[in-house]
Amino acid sequence: MEKHAYPQLVRTFQRLSRFSHLSAIAGWDMATMMPPGGSRARGEALAELGVLQHQLLTDKKVGAWIEAAQQEDLSEDERANLREMRRAYDQAALLPESLVEAKSLAGNRCEHAWRSQRKNNDWQGFAPNLKEVVRLSREEAAIRAEAKGCSRYDALLDIYEPGMTGARLDVLFADLKRWLPSLLQEVVDKQASRPCLDPQGPFPTEKQRDLGLHAMGLLGFDFDRGRLDISAHPFCGGVPEDVRITTRYNEDDVLSALFGVIHETGHARYEQNLPPQWAGQPVGHARSMGVHESQSLFFEMQLGRSPAFLQHLLPAIRQRFGDQPAFTLDNFVAWSQRVKPGYIRVDADEVSYPAHVILRYEIERALIDGDIEVEDIPGLWDEKMQQYLGLSTAGNYQNGCMQDIHWTDGGFGYFPSYTLGAMYAAQLFSAARRALPDLDAHLNAGNFSPLFNWLRQNIWQHGSRFTTAELLTMATGEELNSDFFRQHLTARYL
Amino acid sequence: MEKHAYPQLVRTFQRLSRFSHLSAIAGWDMATMMPPGGSRARGEALAELGVLQHQLLTDKKVGAWIEAAQQEDLSEDERANLREMRRAYDQAALLPESLVEAKSLAGNRCEHAWRSQRKNNDWQGFAPNLKEVVRLSREEAAIRAEAKGCSRYDALLDIYEPGMTGARLDVLFADLKRWLPSLLQEVVDKQASRPCLDPQGPFPTEKQRDLGLHAMGLLGFDFDRGRLDISAHPFCGGVPEDVRITTRYNEDDVLSALFGVIHETGHARYEQNLPPQWAGQPVGHARSMGVHESQSLFFEMQLGRSPAFLQHLLPAIRQRFGDQPAFTLDNFVAWSQRVKPGYIRVDADEVSYPAHVILRYEIERALIDGDIEVEDIPGLWDEKMQQYLGLSTAGNYQNGCMQDIHWTDGGFGYFPSYTLGAMYAAQLFSAARRALPDLDAHLNAGNFSPLFNWLRQNIWQHGSRFTTAELLTMATGEELNSDFFRQHLTARYL
After folding, report:
1. pLDDT (tens digit, 9 = 90+) per residue, B366-420?
2. Region of A245 on the Ramachandran plot (φ > 0 left; ψ -120 to 50 alpha; else beta)
């Protein structure tokens, strides 16, 4: 059948993508450049564009075109594009506008108040706002669950990690919970017997920035299509043609910004290498949050903290911060691989990180499915922190259940992506090593491009053509298997 | 009559203003932050938003509301807002969408390529892009001219300086051409007999930037609602709530960036002090490009290069660049008021500046009216430069006809605003001096706020409530009169 509806969809999604471009740049500017007085006008401008995008996407014509295009003679890629278009349409069109607006208002209110409430450890002030966000997120989950025929939590999970389910996560995470606590304890014990030297600061911001740019260069970041800037919360934003990554600098600590930049460079290279022939179309987008995180963790953890990479980074570090005893290869590797269970997820090492995620997953799933209420969170948080990491957060809300921004604006279902990403990354690195017999020689020679080419070939260039499960199976020869993550941790830390 | 249509118009223009906000920030980013590879996607995104804005503004409903609102019971300010809405509607509704989009794309392409072509003196590369821009601008001018019943060039002039005509400019510029060349020669001769000392560089960019920020502070720039950055061609952009000014630095020259910043600060203070109660509405906009330029020249020329201001700036200069012999007050004033005909408009002193503008006015008017072609520009440029300023630009495109950004994206009709601005500024300063008997004492004491308050009272707070002619007459007691400009130049330089 002739193509009539499909080209209309392509044009609609191209328009939406161009508007998203402006909203991405204005959002980046808001976090990096905007003076405080511009905040209200910027918020109004972005909200106005958001309303317009929602109207364009949920227009009845779009639904009708999607139905009609189903019957049209499409290539395999076009059919994948149509599948992703339908996904975007269903996701946006399911919710009544009143709920979208109520969620946005409640989320804004909760997040805004949280910024000071967290500083003041004010759970009593925070809880009523969070209850309202939870109430609306449950409403959203119920609508999505009914349409998809799945559980409420699964319906939210699907927004960030299409195809993933709570049942699958339970199996994966049960496996992690079986071996990770003892492995963590072994690593901590082992490292206790071999202390390492701390680098001596201060580390001036300008030199740290310069080092970050150098690392980005080693990692193949395309500076013709991207930038590095500063924001309170690091992120990778912008558009594939112009990727904006950010970090924050602490002049007492050279590692935090450096590995933050390496992490965001992983996100950035994925974006910069998405299929250009599908630019602006849903099939050209990154596959999922979990796959995105797999790329940042591939760069930060698999490659970035390996001796092979660190030996090539060290000369640049010594050049900027002096030839300190802490900057021998052995010490610097040991220091980059230090494991120390702590309260804060974003500061966690890769061995203790999954415990933070599993704890949040278990709580947010029970919360959305209605098995617990907001009042139950602090108690559960403390119980699980004690169980998984041996730390108590009783009464310490700011470093406990109030530390993350995600729940404040209703981002339930996002947290599992972090640990899925860590598992995908380990499985991908193992597959790359099998596929590239000379990989270690290349890495030791500072030749990282075979590894990046393998990622381009197997992940980046595919955008959203395949499901996550298909993509992973094609790249690695098997489904997601947490053994690769365990093998990675065992090989590196024990 | 009840108000029905007018509130709809207010909502429509509010939406348009929010979209303009995003386009202003994305445009600023393009000039200051964007890496070159982002150019095409950004151009497409801005063009897409431009098309949307054009559709919203030219919707038949808007035309009908404007007609209906005419009969409604409006306040005087609302009526002025309606007048400006009609002006915006008429201006936009005339052009077919295809032309708007083609102009935006061709302008983006030409401007972006110009950035490197100018550096390479590449007229051959630049000319074909410019021809396309000229072709589309002529098309635009023809459509506007037919609707307004005026000449093609007048139709473009009216976009930037409503109410102004080529015939009026011919009279004003003929007057300038009568007395300015001899005045210029007299000044040059006079200054030749009294050479001044050059400040000794280099002047590091970071210190120049810091000095610029200091000058902005003296001049009342609100840093809570604005920034200073770097771009190839200095401008004042952003939105009233967040004004983005730019400059460029030459480490051998401390004056150029400093007075550039002072100039843009004049634009910025106008924007930052537009009537907040009319934010987002046409009546809340700055009156015209000429009035805008009058504010920047008021800051740069009338105030900025006066001994009264310079004595207060000098300590900051000495602090950053040493207590050089060139930084005595007498020498620094003489140096800031040096008159030297040169190639570059933006570096020109206020005595030779009008020659640069008249040259461009004569060329662009002939170009738009079809009397000359793009190929004729370099020859005419050389001829007029020799005639007005005694300088040849033969083969020197980068410092000749390729030096300005204006024509690259079709801004024909803009240049006269600069010299209209200089004349308005002289007339305004003279009126302020009459209105504020203690002005000189205040300025000598470093108290600039009475002068700024006078500008706020007489210019800034009015937005577009009055026509330019009304605004100038209310502020100064008479119509535009080039005598004030002559008197200013005579008093300062002879």
Report:
1. 999 999 999 999 999 999 999 999 999 999 999 999 999 999 989 999 999 999 9
2. beta
Task: Give the integer Cα–Cα distance in Å for B327 and B319.
Answer: 11
Identify the three-state secondary structure at position B108.
helix
Interface probe, candidates B33, B39, B205, B229, chain A, greatest A C-beta count within 10 A: B33
Specify the DSSP element, H or E, that contains B245.
Answer: strand B242-247
B133 Cβ partners below 8 Å, 6+ apart?
B103, B106, B107, B110, B407, B408, B409, B410
pTM: 0.93
Residues of B whose CB is below 8 A from A44: 18
pLDDT higher than 70, residue B1: no
Annotated binding site of A: 263, 267, 293
Is A224 close to B18, i.e. CB distance below 8 A? no
Residues of B in contact with A38 (CB under 8 A): 225, 238-239, 241-242
CA separation for the pair B236, B247 (Å, rounded) = 9
Query: pLDDT tens-digit profile of B51-64?
Result: 899 999 999 999 99
The active-site residue out of A84, A264, A300, A362 is A264
Q: What is the DSSP string of B413-461?
A: T-THHHHHHHHHHHHHHHHHHHH-TTHHHHHHTT--HHHHHHHHHHTGG
Q: What is the ipTM of this complex?
A: 0.94
The set of residues, in sequence order, having a beta carbon less than 8 Å from that of A139 and lying 6+ positions away, is: A99
Which of B140, B264, B271, B362 is catalytic? The answer is B264
Binding positions of A for Zn(2+) are 263, 267, 293
> A262 CA to chain B: closest CA distance, Å?
20
pLDDT tens-digit map of A243-302? 999 999 999 999 999 999 999 999 999 999 999 999 999 999 999 999 999 999 999 999
pLDDT digit string, tens, across residues B436-462: 999 999 999 999 999 999 999 999 999
Q: What single DSSP character describes residue A197?
A: P
The residue count of chain B comes to 494
Separation of alpha carbons A293 and A344, rounded Å: 18
Q: Which of B130, B147, B140 is nearest to B90 (CA)?
A: B147
Q: Based on the residue annotation, tell me whether A264 is a catalytic residue of this protein.
A: yes
3-state SS, residue A368: helix
State whether residue B246 is helix, strand or coil. Answer: strand
Mean pLDDT on B221-250 = 96
Query: Cα–Cα distance between A236 and A28 in angstroms, integer?
Result: 9
| Beta-bridge partners for B246 | B229
Under a CB-based contact definition with an 8 Å cutoff, are residues B229 and B209 in contact? Answer: no
Interface of chain B toward chain A, CB-CB under 8 angstroms: 15, 18-19, 21-23, 25-26, 29, 33-38, 40-42, 44-46, 48-49, 52, 222-227, 238-239, 241-242, 279
Over its C-alpha atoms, chain B yields an Rg (Å, rounded) of 22
The answer to whether residues B452 and B269 touch, using CB atoms and an 8 Å cutoff, is yes
For residues B380 and B364, give the distance between their C-alpha atoms in angstroms, rounded to a whole number.
11
Residue A220 above 80 pLDDT? Answer: yes
The per-residue pLDDT for A170 is 97
Please give the residue of chain B at the shortest CA–CA distance from A18. B45
Annotate B402-415 with b (16+ C-beta within 10 A) or e (fewer): bbbbbbbbbbbbbb
Q: What is the DSSP string of B167-192?
A: HHHHHHHHHHHHHHHHHHHHHHHHHH
* Whether residue B215 has pLDDT greater than 80: yes
Cis peptide before B202 (omega within 30 of 0): yes
Radius of gyration of chain A (CA): 23
**How many residues in chain A?**
494
